Amino acid sequence: MSQTPAQISRRRVVVTGLGAVTPVGNTAVATWDALQAGRSGIGPLTRYDTTGCPVTIGGEVRNFDPAAPLPKPLYPRGAAGEPLTHAVSPKEVKRLGRFSHLGLVAAVEAYADSGLDGVRATISPERMGVNVGVAMGGLPEVVATQELWKTSGYRKISPFFIIQAAPNILAGQLAIALNLKGPNMSVASACATSGHALGESLRAIQRGDADVMIAGGAEAVITPIVIGAFAQMKALSTRNDAPEKASRPYDADRDGFVLGEGAVVFVLEELEHAQKRGARIYAELCGYGATADAHHISMLAPEAEGSQRSMRGALADAGVAPAQVGFVAAHATSTPGGDVEEAGAIASVFAEAKGSLHVSGVKSMTGHLLGAAGAMGAFSAVQAIKQGVISPTINLDHIEPACASLGLDFTANVAVKKHVDYALANSFGFGGTNASLVFGRI
Q1: Averaged over 138-157, what is the pLDDT?
Q2: Looking at the predicted structure, is the pLDDT value of residue 3 above 50?
Q3: Buried b or exposed e, range 260-284, using 16+ CB within 10 angstroms
């Protein structure tokens, strides 16, 4: 008989650091303040001329300087080592792609937030690893380089182009910056990317491969080609005249998702390791489920069967009953079909606990961060446990009848203060890939 993950290891894993660069805030604190307040980060696209495209809105990260100095230097190589003064040094800005800029700033913030830097002399770098995923990599850099080659020839191609575009460079550069010599990976599983990155980092610590993992996701593909491709699929909202109202999960008037960009990164740490150094603990990551629909490349399986198995698997892995969960951070993209299917799956999994459950969709404020979406949902789940506040699903003015009939509370428009012992976060992606995470109070 095969062993379950819980039988393989009893090492417990906790969240000790958070970092975020998102359409609603350029730090974790600013992002959480916006989510509590129900502020949208969706607006007119400014990065290129949108003339001729039916979609002119998105969730851009604004007023972002990747080379801004850190609030105070960090010493990941010990007090006698070279200090880290920038998440991205000024000379590295042109060498790296935008997704790496976003991911490095968020990851360094999470590392600083964890307090690990103050005890680095006591931790072997070989016990610290990275799993920061990217769904689509450096597409803006690919497109720009292709255009440059067409107009000016190959001699104008930057020698740093491959470094700008390759998805794993973010994880590699982060390991260099923070002196992390343990497992180093970069998951790519569409919109479930950072859910899987967090889950696989949980497993790495449980197996004993590392004591600390920096995990999450990043994405930066707001370009004419990506917006245009999703528009051709009829997947995006065209509510260009009211961008802050465009992303509206579960609402009867939703007309598609809104593309966003950003990075959300966690520091995960073995519980005793964290307790011995007196770390602040946000929550425990206590369960992980990963499944495949094996049904359709871009649509959920009937009754979201694979999503149900993912949630049930995460709950079983955590040893948590559905009735113990107070909040589900839903994938909730604001698409006509996906919202109903996922809501039905949640209602099925939590059939006996719907009266005490809140569900919300953070994408109503941030848009869809693709490779960072799973970590964005997990962020709202962790904060619900730590802060006792569930962020709302904004723009939920007229609930879809098929969703209303399920009897779920979708946390419409206003945050809810609530004691939450356990929260579940979902992320699902093209290809039928699913990830669910269960977080709990310590």
Answers
A1: 92
A2: no
A3: bbbbbbbbbbbbebbeebebeebbb
Domain around 113: 13-276
Nearest partner of 336 among 257, 394, 260, judged by Cα: 257
For 322, left (φ over 0), alpha (ψ -120 to 50), or beta? Answer: alpha
Helix (H) or strand (E) holding 131: strand 128-134
Residues 237 and 297 in one domain: no
Q: What are 215-270's pLDDT values in tens digits?
A: 999 999 999 999 999 999 999 999 999 999 999 999 999 999 999 999 999 999 99
Residues 293 and 362 in one domain: yes
Supply the residues annotated as catalytic.
191, 331, 368
pLDDT (0 to 100) of residue 20: 99
pLDDT of amino acid 9: 60
Query: Do 194 and 269 fall within a single domain?
Result: yes
Looking at the fold, whether 175 and 48 belong to one and the same domain comes out as yes
The last residue of a domain, from among 226, 247, 276: 276
Last residue in a domain, options 276, 298, 326: 276
Segment (H or E) for 177: helix 169-178
- pLDDT surpassing 80 at residue 341: yes
pLDDT, average across residues 111-138: 97
> Could you tell me if residue 6 is inside a domain?
no
Cα dist. 283→17, 319, 435 in Å? 10, 16, 19
**Packing angle of the helix pair 28-37, 373-387 (nearest 10 deg):** 80
In angstroms, the Cα distances linking 331 to 14, 51, 146, 160, 179 are: 22, 31, 34, 35, 33
CA angle in degrees (0–180, nearest 5) for 367-370-371 = 135
pLDDT at 2: 44
Q: What is the average pLDDT across 272-288?
A: 98
Give the predicted TM-score (pTM) of the model: 0.96
With a cut of 90, say whether residue 324 has pLDDT above it: yes
Query: Token digits for 439?
Result: 């977080």
* Residue 71 burial class via C-beta count within 10 angstroms: exposed 0-12, middle 13-18, buried 19 and up: exposed
Identify whether 350 is part of a domain: yes
Q: 361 and 388 share a domain?
A: yes
Report the number of distinct structural domains present in the chain: 2
Tell me: do 144 and 250 sit in the same domain. Answer: yes
- The DSSP annotation for 343-368 comes to HHHHHHHTTTTGGG-EEE-THHHH-B
Q: Is residue 3 part of a domain?
A: no
